[in-house]
Give the backbone structure.
Amino acid sequence: MREIVTIQVGDFANYIGSHFWNFQDELLGLAEDDTADPIFKNNCMDMDVLYRTGLSHQGAYTYCPRLISIGSQGSLGTLSSSGSLYGDSSSSDASDTLTWKGAVTKLAEKPHEKNLFLKSLSEEGEDDPNIEDKDRVQCLERDVKFWSDFSKVHFHSKSLYELNGTWTDFQNFDNFGVGKEVLSGGFHMEELNDRLRFFVEECDHVQGIQCMVDDSGGFSGVASEFLENIADDYTNIPVLLYSVRDTFSYTDATNQRKLIARSLHDAVSLSKLSTYSSLIVPVGLPSLGGLAPSLCVRDEKNFHSSAVYASAIHSISAPFRFKPAGPISSTTYAAGSLDIGEIIHILAGQRQNMVAILDVSMPAPSLSVSDKANPGGILNSFHALGTEIGDDSEDLYMDESLIFNGALYSGADRASVSQVKDSICNVYDKGLRPKPRPSHLSISLTPIPIPLPFPSIFPTSTSRRGEILADQPLVGPPKGSLEVESVPVMTRLRSSIAIKPFIESRYNNLLRHGMLRGAKGADLLRDWGFGKDEVDDMGEYLSKMLRIFNPSSEMTSDSD
Amino acid sequence: MSIRVLNPNAEVLNKSAALHMTINAAKGLQDVLKSNLGPKGTIKMLVGGAGDIKLTKDGNTLLKEMQIQNPTAIMIARTAVAQDDSSGDGTTSTVLFIGELMKQSERCIDEGTHPRFLVDGFEIAKRATLEFLEKFKTPVVIGDTPDKEILKMVARTTLRTKLYEVLADQLTDIIVNAVLCIRKPEEAIDLFMVEIMHMRHKFDVDTRLVEGLVLDHGSRHPDMKRRAENCYILTCNVSLEYDKSEINAGFFYSNAEQREKMVAAERRQVDQRVMKIIELKEKVCSGTDKNFVVINQKGIDPPSLDLLARAGIIALRRAKRRNMERLVLACGGEAVNSVDDLTEDCLGWAGLVYEHVLGEEKYTFVEQVKNPLSCTILIKGPNDHTIAQIKDAVRDGLRSVKNTIEDEAVVLGAGAFEVAARKHLLDNVKRTAKGRAQLGVEAFADALLVIPKTLAENSGLDTQDVIVSLQNEHDQGTVAGLNHHTGDPIDPQMEGIFDNYSVKRQIINSGPVIASQLLLVDEVIRAGRNMRKPA
């Protein structure tokens, strides 16, 4: 088995993670549920890749995500940082203090109140017949304050880490420098390394680290320091990094100072994060309106947008955990197993590009419909989940990896592996699209299950199995987890020249605001703890990332 | 007010408002930390919104937990925390001292003194106090065999302010022995060579010193021994797992057969490395009752574990980077990065290696080593917050012993130094200052008393009585500190109450610097600008 360790850094990364683990939890639940759709019983996914089996102090077996989540202090809401499974015998009774015989002052924060959904998870709310699932879904639509508000997963006691001593309030924890500084004391780093070691040590053969980083603020600095350590300690473990952003991080800067700070942050962040990871995938749109009409997402809700990103990341991760291909299972339920190292290798391609674009089609259209109405149209249903993406129709060196989860053939009928394969190969064979080489196709018949705490973001015309029904009215209240059981999702990681504008704008900003003589942001970079040499190195690194897209320098880039 | 033109959102406070804002912030922070100080202080239990508990009597921990928002308070807190980072203690004292300097200044400023005079006075007083400290300190002869008693007294003084007496006294011995264990003549003490390990288990007085190492992981093979005596220890950083080279080398397989071949070749290489280790084991152990333990920083995959287990070797993987160094210091031998030139000289030695399992957590004890230069303090506690608090105290204790050895001096505690320094400032220094700067010297001198005053207050004694009787003693030429039980003057030397010289020195150094900066603030502009590090 090839284990994956997941790392989430920053609040929005934890929002996405919360949805991501809800999917896993739902899959685990459905596999054991006899009344569930049989497709979930034979999902041929090995959950041990993401989860670990443990033993609590009370001698009970536990099954928890192999996860480290880093957030700011107080971002856990009602969730205890030591989780609920590894019961601590602590009592908050001041008289139980064992280490001090003198006076004890107790300073208690007002306990966070659990919402209806969380209450139904613990026993407290279960016997109340007046509260229905409808109310629980509504309460989440109304108000989500913390990522834990909609999480139904039990975490290990070493998983959740709160970063204290940041010396700044949340608004000001907004640049690479402050994040870097928080970890500079060494204490946090030691603790984080110890926790990571705990999860890695028990793995027989780690395939990689999957990492989600909210890179819009200080957490980018935190992550890069952590990743630097990881790169030192675990030299051969590939790191797949999603740099994620919520819609708020795209709000216009109020003044020029902030604008410069932000553009420098973006440049530094890309340069540093890509230095310490194997593949970086920017995820996050200023608005998810472009995904309409197949989804209706409220931009102002992180609860909504994170759900879409989580679906895509979940879909990408499916082939990492297909069970070893037996002669039968591979053809009937899934095909195209892949590990993190392989996907990175495929996407790096000849150019050794390491910034990939994530595209998603959710819910993915039925094969028969798209085949008839618009041959090859299935690949036109993709939406990119990143910004500043150019055109790659002319790019001959494009590499991509496509993953289709739970395709529908027509109506509510599920497509077989070969139908999906034919349908997609058709697009290439007919020359409707320049075929990238080597491209990879992974197919899983298991769709993405929609757990109860999933937001209501599906249009009225969505069926139980996630098909867009043509004969349904287009206008109406959005559907959620109570009406939609599962959705087919198709995702693609694309490594092409289309990412060039993204890197280019960051490189130019670093040059203009940080490196040129008299640049306005040079002091700022110094404040963040970067000497001139280090800034030059970052600039050189970004320019190297850009050069690979330049055909004339192709020959020279091979030499190193 | 031009800032308003540039940034309409900016909020500007004028001079006197700014001054009062900073003074209030300093006093506020002082109030929060005041009750922490000394062996009679109050411990604080912080309960978070989700019921998480944190227990602390340490100013440093408390400041970090408080999520301070006020920029002045942040500036003071940063200074105080920096104090802790560099000398290991004195956070609370620093905050109290700065707060008191601001309080004394406020009085003068209200009476019409310009802050500039105070600042000048502070500078004179600071220099004089530092000179006085040089004379006042008690030199400690360290040499090859340091006086254990004095080290214990310093450690005990620190620990008793963090933990109750019985526990503090027990830890005192552990801590002093730990530092002496890792101390190498002619070299700076590296406290990282003391591993602090914890187990959530039983009660806190079980904490002990392990001469050797405790690792927080165990072997990963069911057939490996759980306990072995007379062990050779191989410390290495060699990958004993099969890596796919394709990722790094960019190698493409043209067909399945080639792939199989590559995989087999790769596997063979790993196996060869394992075989080299086994060869060495056979060479040194065969025919004896000796055992062989491999502790590897990199991974060991199941096939390799199998081979090692069959050869009767105990193998641990993914050891902490720092433990590589510690293991060599504890057991001898050297840490190897390749198995090519393995000889017996690379191996360390431990009389006993055994595994201890608690739930899903495994611990491996490497004990009975020869001439250890690294050791482990094993903390046991019933729950996480108790462990965390003991751990903090142990760290502070270790620092205090290290400081003493490096300073080659200590300072009489229980408020004795502060009272003596004040007397010196008022009697000898004040008159040398010009004009109104005298007020600054006086304010500084009075501010020093915050330490004995707070100690008295926390012990439930009458502050004024205590200060008067202490001053009387000093006027008669005896150096006296405060007995926190009775409030009577005592001789700290007799009672064995000593503080670190470097900690005191730093408090006197940094306190007035921050206070002066705050006093000279003319305007506070809030324009969303983040307060950065103090200069």
Observations:
- DSSP finds 16 helices and 17 strands in chain A.
- Residues 11-32 of chain A form the longest helix (22 residues).
- The first strand of chain A starts at residue 3 and ends at 9.
